[in-house]
Design a protein that fits this description.
Blueprint (H helix, E strand, L loop, with lengths): L1 E5 L6 H11 L4 E3 H11 L2 H11 L6 H12 L8 E4 L5 H12 L7 E6 L2 H9 L1 E4 L5 E3 L18 E2 L6 H24 L3 E5 L4 H13 L2
Parallel strand pairs: 1-3, 1-4, 2-3, 4-8
Antiparallel strand pairs: 5-6, 5-7
């Protein structure tokens, strides 16, 4: 099964990706992981990407797509893949379709986890992490036993700059503007499935699992 996992920051994509990986024999592939692996392995595309990354520039689509193609050609993707963080644009989605079609397959489903913006704002702006061990907490939903102190190592908890309310609002606005055309693309392809992420993660996964078991 070939799956695209979509959803705004704070929607719970990471949790669902881990649950999918445990239940289905396909690799979870994030954009960041792909880039790091390609650079570390010194592939042709990895070396090309590194030039842009070292210069602080965005990696061009043709290089990104090349890295995706190299990754999907690996043996562990024989039974399918779960792509997270790619594609980000309609152009990338069209390129991905061509890459997958070369292998005689197609993107079977684009799972979009949606959560109301006010809930996303609450989730993200209430998030704090340990400055020592990087454990993550949420002061509204999964607070530490002692305010400001990490349960795991006793380190100090702090809010990241990108989790501050104004920054979160900006991130969500950018996500919406960039992603809506992509949602429209998969809607036209008739493989977009929207899933209510404003529930307990186990309930969300129950729906995700039911969808994937039908593929």
């Amino acid at each position: 099964m070939n799956i695209i996992l979509m959803g705004p920051p704070g929607a719970g994509k990471g949790t669902q990706a881990e649950l999918i990986k445990k239940s289905f024999p396909i690799p979870h592939i994030s954009t960041g992981d792909m880039f790091r692996e390609a650079v570390a392995n010194g592939t042709a595309m990895g070396k090309e990407a590194k030039k842009y990354m070292d210069a602080g520039q965005l990696v061009p689509d043709e290089v990104t797509i090349g890295i995706v193609e190299d990754r999907l050609a690996q043996d562990d993707c024989e039974k399918g893949f779960l792509l997270d963080g790619f594609p980000r644009t309609t152009l990338q989605a069209q390129a991905l379709d061509k890459v997958v079609a070369k292998r005689g397959k197609s993107v079977e489903v684009a799972l979009n986890i949606f959560v109301p913006e006010d809930i996303l704002l609450l989730r993200l702006s209430s998030r704090v992490s340990c400055t020592t061990c990087k454990a993550v907490y949420n002061t509204k939903f999964s607070a530490p036993a002692t305010a400001g102190i990490c349960d795991q190592c006793g380190g100090k908890l702090a809010q990241r700059n990108d989790d501050k309310e104004e920054t979160v609002k900006s991130r969500l606005k950018v996500y919406q503007e960039q992603t809506q055309p992509l949602l429209d693309y998969y809607e036209e392809q008739k493989n977009l499935i929207n899933i209510d992420g404003n529930r307990d993660s186990a309930e969300v996964f129950k729906d995700v699992k039911a969808i994937l078991e039908k593929l």
